[in-house]
Write a structure and sequence with these properties.
Helices cover 67% and strands 0% of the residues. The protein has helices at 2-15, 19-35, 43-59, 63-95, 116-121, 147-154, 166-190, 197-220, 234-250, 256-289.
């Protein structure tokens, strides 16, 4: 939430560069870092907008506005830095917990591969026949080992696969949406007219930082749990943005079929996800009642 708020508010500030628009960015960024240090990834798109704004006023020789802007950025740091560091510093001082500390599981089943080549390049079509993130702890035949496939699988709402046949339908739908979002991103980025180049750079770097950070995390801590999409959540929102922007660009009569297909797949994903959650809840309730 704080990630998306910070990025959205930064875009708002970039369009209307007032101190009243800067303070909410600092608060959201600080609260995000206070909640989880992975918020640092948002510093990349925010920095792109800040630097672009500075270059713009310097190019226009608007030195009065430059001083105001630097002052606003100092306010941003004054608010966000103490909020960002408080929790980590407090735990370091009181309990000796290292900053950015990540606990490691002792159970061998939680760890699967230390071969980086396998982590990065080993694809097996058999992995696509099973919609759940495979884990031998849960009685599955293997441990999920490819981060990209695990990313797609874990983006589904289902966890325990108690909702009958729904996950088997939902998984290919998620695959299709993943491909659509990537194609839409490429389309928007290479399209000459449309999205401002600053926003293109901002979203592209944000996307790359999130994915690279995710892969590094998966390689450094090679467990099944580290592959889940919760460690790369912004890619969902970035993908959704590019799909929406593409629909605005192509939503014309001659491309009506393509637009209808994309909208239909997205709606199908929403309906199946909702049904999956409801069915899973019902099955859990029945299980608890029969204990």
């Amino acid at each position: 939430m704080f990630m998306m708020l910070a990025v959205s508010l930064s875009i708002n500030w970039y369009k209307n560069r007032k101190i009243s628009n800067m303070i909410p960015i600092a608060i959201c960024f600080g609260l995000g870092m206070f909640t989880k240090l992975s918020m640092w990834m948002c510093s990349v798109p925010i920095a792109v907008l800040f630097i672009s704004a500075l270059i713009d006023v310097i190019r226009r020789k608007q030195f009065k506005d430059l001083r105001k802007m630097i002052g606003q950025m100092c306010v941003f740091l004054t608010i966000s830095v103490p909020m960002s560091l408080y929790w980590s510093v407090r735990n370091l001082v009181r309990f000796g917990v290292p900053i950015a500390y990540i606990p490691v599981f002792d159970e061998p089943d939680q760890y699967i591969l230390e071969d980086v080549t396998t982590r990065l390049f080993d694809f097996n079509l058999s992995q696509f026949s099973f919609p759940q993130v495979a884990n031998v702890i849960n009685g599955d035949n293997y441990n999920e080992y490819n981060p990209l496939i695990a990313l797609i699988k874990s983006s589904m709402c289902t966890t325990a696969l108690k909702s009958f046949f729904i996950p088997n339908i939902l998984f290919p739908v998620v695959l299709i949406i993943s491909v659509i979002s990537f194609v839409c991103m490429i389309y928007v980025l290479v399209k000459k007219h449309g999205l401002d180049p600053v926003y293109k750079l901002m979203f592209l770097l944000f996307y790359l930082v999130v994915l690279v950070s995710y892969y590094i995390f998966c390689i450094k801590y090679p467990g099944v749990c580290t592959e889940e999409i919760r460690y790369a959540t912004p890619v969902i929102f970035i993908g959704a943005y590019f799909i929406s922007y593409t629909l605005m660009c192509i939503d014309k009569k001659k491309k009506k079929a393509l637009s209808l297909f994309i909208r239909s797949v997205v709606v199908l994903f929403v309906l199946l996800s909702a049904a999956d959650i409801v069915c899973d809840g019902i099955m859990n309730a029945i299980e608890w009642m029969t204990l």
